[in-house]
Design goal:
mainly alpha, about 75% helix, globular
């Protein structure tokens, strides 16, 4: 391992971040390649939507349990084992592909199994960051995470699209396995501070008590509860079009042109990188709730409408830029609020519960999106369809027009959902009325086991 005495905490975080960035790049290259393959097999928007559905259901179900283990275990090992598990799954898919036995349902199964590891990895990554860094560095760290998310959105489709003709899907997935090894190596050479959220004098509480803790922590804090509910609505409308059937919109309107889809997805990532750079230069607004509500409304209203009316790649590139440039501010502000209001030693289980509820609408949106596009809006927006006379002037008719009309709906409803956060005082004033974790005196009768649990300040492995 590296001699952590010669590294400051931001340098250690940067090492972890670099490994996770490389791993994320490989995963997104594989996902892009498999998505193209799946659409080529079926030509159905429902197929792409179901990939998203299976990617989220196990994650949602397992998240609260995973959160307890994240707080109980060495978070470095949680991250390592999650990467190893995902790498093994990719190797199994490579074997099926090489044998000529790969089927659509195998991809569904891969997404479901991968999401089990993601349920551990996501909270562990955030909680490890909070334990490692001081509060003053949370914004910078979240900006780096956004940069990784958006940067890989640029590189993954470009690299996968360029390499597919030469090395095929099997080669892309082998690159993915190599990136998992890089992530494991970076985690293996550093130490992380430990932060167990129970009382050492009283002993560890029962697993069920810790499992309930995450729920009780959020539901007794109206500001966090309202913020979580707000994001449930935001994620539903974003998933209904942007995450589920946007690739089908591009492919349908370009005759299956995978290069066009790659350009649009790369533009989404580029806009996100620009947003991340702007956030790193100017920082988040002093009142971060404005980034959550106001900028999210702008992202929906501008981005989704431009996707809806677009007919060419330049139009969709503009839509991508408008939609994605605000996302680092939105996600960074939301994550920073949670990190400052929830003590690091409790973030595993609390954030896992938040993730479960926030992402719970996604499977329903994925299930709705495919049939709505293929069976209702799609036929209705054909040249002689029932809705074509009313909305054809906005989104056109023919292939992809039905999905375009769906984007019109999410532009309006998503913007209204985002702005609704201002209607509730607990959400609007969450930064002022809910104390930061280091200023809050916990109610011992409510949470009897959380006192006397200081974060271990030493970088012990």
């Amino acid at each position: 391992m590296l001699d952590t005495k010669n590294l400051n905490r931001m340098q250690i975080f940067t090492i972890i971040w670099m490994g996770q960035l490389v791993s994320l790049l490989g995963s997104r290259m594989t996902r892009f390649a498999l998505m193209i393959w799946a659409y080529q097999q079926t030509g159905s928007a429902t197929t792409l939507a179901l990939i998203g559905f299976f990617a989220w259901v196990p994650y949602i179900v397992l998240s609260p349990v995973a959160g307890v283990w994240v707080d109980r275990l060495d978070r470095r090992w949680v991250l390592i084992l999650s990467d190893v598990g995902s790498g093994v799954l990719t190797l199994l898919v490579i074997g099926l592909f090489q044998l000529g036995s790969l089927a659509i349902w195998h991809i569904y199964l891969l997404e479901a199994a991968s999401s089990l590891f993601d349920a551990f990895q996501g909270p562990a990554y955030v909680a490890a960051t909070s334990t490692l860094l001081p509060k003053a560095s949370y914004g910078r760290a979240n900006g780096m995470r956004s940069l990784a998310q958006d940067g890989t959105m640029i590189l993954a489709p470009i690299m996968a699209g360029a390499l597919l003709p030469f090395i095929g899907i099997g080669g892309i997935m082998l690159i993915d396995v190599a990136t998992f090894l890089v992530a494991v190596f970076t985690l293996g050479v550093i130490h992380l501070p430990t932060a167990y959220g129970g009382s050492e004098t009283a002993g560890k509480p029962a697993f069920g008590e810790e499992l309930r803790f995450g729920f009780r922590y959020i539901f007794t804090r109206k500001g966090l509860l309202g913020l979580m509910a707000l994001f449930m609505g935001i994620e539903f409308f974003a998933t209904l079009t942007y995450f589920s059937v946007m690739p089908a919109l591009i492919l349908a309107r370009t005759g299956g042109n995978e290069r066009a889809l790659g350009i649009v997805q790369a533009t989404l990532g580029a806009a996100g990188v620009v947003g991340g750079l702007l956030m790193s230069i100017f920082g988040l607004p002093r009142r971060k709730i404005h980034a959550v509500c106001g900028l999210c409304a702008l992202s929906f209203l501008g981005g989704d409408l431009l996707f809806a009316i677009g007919r060419t790649v330049p139009h969709w590139m503009l839509a991508s830029a408008v939609a994605a440039v605000f996302i680092p501010f939105i996600s960074g502000a939301n994550r920073t609020i949670w990190q400052t209001k929830v003590a690091p030693q409790f973030q595993g289980r609390v954030l896992a519960v938040s993730n479960m509820f926030t992402n719970a609408p996604k499977p329903f949106a994925y299930l709705l999106a495919g049939p709505l596009a293929d069976r209702w809006f799609g036929p209705a927006m054909q040249p002689n369809g029932a809705l074509a006379p009313f909305f054809g002037w906005i989104v056109g008719t023919g292939p992809g027009a039905g999905i375009g009309l769906m984007f019109v709906g999410t532009a309006i409803l998503g913007a209204l959902m985002s702005l609704s956060g201002y209607l509730f005082r607990a959400v609007r004033q969450v930064e002022d009325e809910l104390p930061d974790y280091d200023a809050e005196e916990h109610n011992q009768s409510e949470f009897p086991f959380i006192a006397a649990a200081p974060i271990d300040g030493e970088l012990t492995g």
